[in-house]
Design goal:
With about 725 residues, the protein is an alpha+beta fold. Strands 1, 2, 3, 4, 5 and 6 form a 6-stranded mixed β-sheet that branches. Helix 3 packs antiparallel against helix 4 and helix 4 packs across helix 6. It has 26 helices and 21 strands. It folds into 6 domains: about 200 residues, Hypothetical protein af1432 (Orthogonal Bundle), CATH 1.10.3210; about 140 residues, Beta Polymerase, domain 2, CATH 3.30.460.10; about 80 residues, Beta-grasp domain (Ubiquitin-like (UB roll)), CATH 3.10.20.30; about 80 residues, no CATH class; about 80 residues, no CATH class; about 80 residues, Alpha-Beta Plaits (2-Layer Sandwich).
Length: about 725
């Protein structure tokens, strides 16, 4: 276009806008804006875009669409016009002084949206990107203006030779602006965007369908006339005011149906729809629509499975209509849409007078709620409602950030750099030491904001810390950190135990799990992992630890020969304490001796029903051992004179502590399955549990309270049936 032609076109476009009172571009404002634009151009500003189109003329055309098709008005139009010509890196201070702070703020929103659209096209296809785009715009009017801008641009670039740029704009139209236009009820613009994007992205498919439609137009029009003739007669007889339109399905819709149904053009039977639009008062709209429905279904057979009643409950985007499918002449199925003039205006232009039916709800803070606010504001022309802050309206429930490669990720509100690292990969999260956001170094605690480009920095020597749980907010990151910390603790525990076992072996001392558990608790550690971590960290005196263990081991078994002993013959039968009793449980020692103190030996933890014997201690009491106790051979061979017979009598109703060792695969949920079995047993109580995990295997030590041996054996059998459990043994 020659320069004089461009100037003439700009003049006539400005003149056209000046006649529209909604555009807020009176003569003085136009003069002010044009003076500023000329100043920018004189200072080296670019007048033409990547398609070779005049930016000023292109912007004025988009403003015309926004004003007439969307009913957009106000300062956003001036801000858009200025942002289209103003260099993106220029200072907003001068704009603020000349046009006001609100104009400058709106221009910044347009700039941020333009920056976001520089993302790689594949990213734009996701719902997350569309949500990010809306949140980035912040001002509702900016989104609406950009829809109009895209429509205009798609109309103007048909002859452009810049195929790459045209493809990018077409992707924006298909995946961002068309879906938003649909949600807003801007159906005419939505269909145009879809058709034009198909034209540029899938040229052959578009023109194949277009040519087919042109070929069948005459026969299609003739069929429509045959179909509506009897309907017109019935509507006229009822005295209804109406008009009828035949609407051919959009090229994009036909293409989508062909792909979905895997059929050729001829296989799409509903290429067109008949639209009956009645002129009725708002109170009588629904009644008259249903009356038309009854007249049509009396004339033609209807398919009730394809009845769509959006009169009673309108669509969430404000759409109201009654759709039926009937069998017309030549046994062809035809869709008929019945609506009022008001409903048709809503469907064509998105100016929803009743955009939400009373009682239909959506989730608080959703995109749909925000879009509903736009519809209400468009209807009333409420400028302040249109300028509401988007992030507040959306509830700001998510954060959207980009990786260095341009991939888009969604995280929960308040997410930190560490959350993002674990979202990328568990290994990246475990080794994360910080990151870079938009080129600046940040810590793992840094909170992310939508639209940022985030790079993670790692170090091989880094390991997860328990305190990281307080840094992240996502459940995924918390679970990964917890698992990694437990794995590290288990590995430390295995290493620490190997060291201890080696030291005990050097002293020719056996490893007694029960005594170690007692000792760990006596030292104040609730978990074995805590104890092993302290041991590895050098917080425990090894010599003192082994000395305490040796002492406890001796007290359990009393194998030392230098301990003063007393013969069992010294005990008077009348003074021996002869029983332990709990309800009707009785333990009979030797020949029903009475008056002796006795305890259950901790080395084997006898339970009612076990075969047992008594061992007289140096203190005069008796320890009850199982006959298969690990210490039994030594006691029987070295101190036979201190061994007394013992047996159970009565019925077992007492509670005895038993230690079980469970070994199995470290599968997800296996510990829960084990504890669940125990909790379901009425006569068993779980007193403590300690789990170690290493290389896909776990080793657990459980202390339970049971009534007798039979209950214990039943429990062991049930535990052995748990999937993943390899062995269950009694300590």
């Amino acid at each position: 276009m020659a320069k004089t032609e461009e100037q003439r076109a700009i003049f006539f476009q400005l003149l056209r806008l000046s006649r529209n009172r909604h555009t807020c571009l009176p003569r003085e404002e136009r003069r002010k804006v044009l003076i500023y634009i000329n100043k920018v151009l004189d200072n080296g500003g670019e007048l033409y875009d990547c398609f070779g189109l005049n930016k000023v003329l292109l912007s004025l055309q988009a403003i015309q669409i926004a004003s007439e098709e969307i009913d957009l008005r106000g300062d956003v139009l001036k801000a858009y016009l200025l942002s289209s010509i103003e260099p993106r890196e220029s200072d907003l201070t001068a704009l603020s002084k000349t046009f006001g702070s609100e104009i400058a703020t709106t221009i910044s929103h347009f700039r941020r949206a333009a920056t976001l659209l520089e993302s790689k096209p594949k990213t734009m296809e996701s719902d997350d990107f569309r949500n990010l785009f809306i949140a980035t715009c912040e001002d509702m009017r900016v989104v609406l203006m950009l829809i109009a801008d895209c429509v205009n641009k798609m109309r103007q670039i048909k002859d452009s030779e810049n195929d790459k740029a045209r493809q990018k704009v077409s992707i924006e139209a298909a995946h961002i602006y068309a879906p938003l236009a649909h949600k807003l009820g801007l159906y005419t613009l939505k269909s145009e965007l879809e058709d034009l994007s198909l034209k540029y992205l899938e040229h052959d498919a578009y023109y194949h369908i277009k040519d087919k439609l042109n070929e069948t137009k005459k026969s299609r029009d003739a069929y429509i006339e045959r179909f509506i003739t009897p309907i017109k007669k019935k509507l006229d007889e009822e005295g209804l005011k109406y008009h009828i339109k035949g609407r051919t399905k959009s090229i994009h819709s036909i293409w989508q149906k062909m792909k979905k149904q895997h059929c050729a053009f001829e296989g799409v039977y509903d290429l067109f729809a008949i639209r009956i639009i009645i002129d009725a008062p708002m109170k009588e709209e629904q009644a008259q629509c249903w009356k038309v429905f009854s007249l049509i279904t009396y004339e033609y057979e209807s398919n009730l499975k394809r009845l769509r009643d959006w009169l009673t409950v309108p669509k969430s985007n404000g759409y109201e209509s009654l759709h039926i499918t009937v069998r017309g002449p030549e046994d062809k199925w035809v869709e008929v849409q019945i609506r009022s003039e008001r409903m048709d205006e809503v469907a064509e232009h998105g100016l929803a007078a009743h955009w939400r039916y009373k009682g239909v709800k959506t989730s608080e803070g959703s995109i749909d709620n925000w879009l509903a606010d736009i519809r209400a504001a468009l209807e009333t022309g409420n400028e302040s409602a249109l300028t509401n802050n988007l992030t507040r309206s959306l509830g700001d429930q998510s954060v959207y950030v980009f990786s260095p490669k341009g991939d888009l990720y969604r995280l929960p509100k308040g997410a930190t750099l560490l959350d993002f690292a674990y979202l990328i990969h568990t290994g990246v999260g475990n080794r994360c030491v910080g990151g870079r956001i938009d080129g600046k170094n940040v810590s793992i605690r840094h909170k992310l904001e939508s639209g940022q480009k985030v790079e993670i920095l790692t170090r091989d020597s880094q390991t997860p810390k328990p305190e990281w749980m307080n840094i992240v907010v996502s459940q995924r990151a918390k679970a990964k950190i917890r698992s990694a910390v437990n794995d590290l603790a288990a590995a430390e525990g295995v290493a620490a135990r190997e060291i201890l076992e080696r030291k005990l072996k050097n002293r020719k001392l056996p490893w007694d799990e029960s005594i170690w558990n007692q000792l760990i608790k006596r030292l104040g550690y609730k978990e074995t992992n805590e104890f092993y971590k302290a041991f590895v960290g050098g917080q425990i005196d090894v010599a003192e630890l082994i000395e305490n263990y040796t002492s406890m081991l001796k007290r359990e078994s009393h194998p030392a020969e230098n301990i003063a002993t007393r013969s069992a013959e010294e005990f008077n039968a009348e003074h021996l304490s002869a029983h332990i009793e709990s309800g009707s449980d009785v333990l009979v020692i030797d020949k029903n001796l009475k008056g002796l103190d006795f305890q259950m030996a901790h080395c084997c933890n006898p339970v009612y029903g076990d075969t047992v014997f008594g061992f007289v201690t140096s203190g005069g009491g008796i320890k009850i051992h199982r006959t298969n106790c690990p210490n039994a051979p030594a006691l029987l061979s070295r101190f036979p004179y201190r061994v007394v017979k013992a047996r159970w009598a009565g019925k077992g109703t007492g509670k005895y502590p038993i230690t079980l060792r469970v070994v199995g695969n470290d599968d997800l949920g296996i510990v829960n399955n084990i504890t669940s079995i125990i909790s379901k047993e009425q006569n068993i109580m779980l007193r403590s549990i300690s789990i170690d995990s290493n290389d896909g295997l776990f080793s657990g030590v459980l202390t339970v309270m049971v009534d007798d041996k039979q209950v214990l054996n039943t429990l062991i059998k049930k535990l052995r049936t748990v999937k993943g459990v390899k062995a269950v043994s009694r300590n």
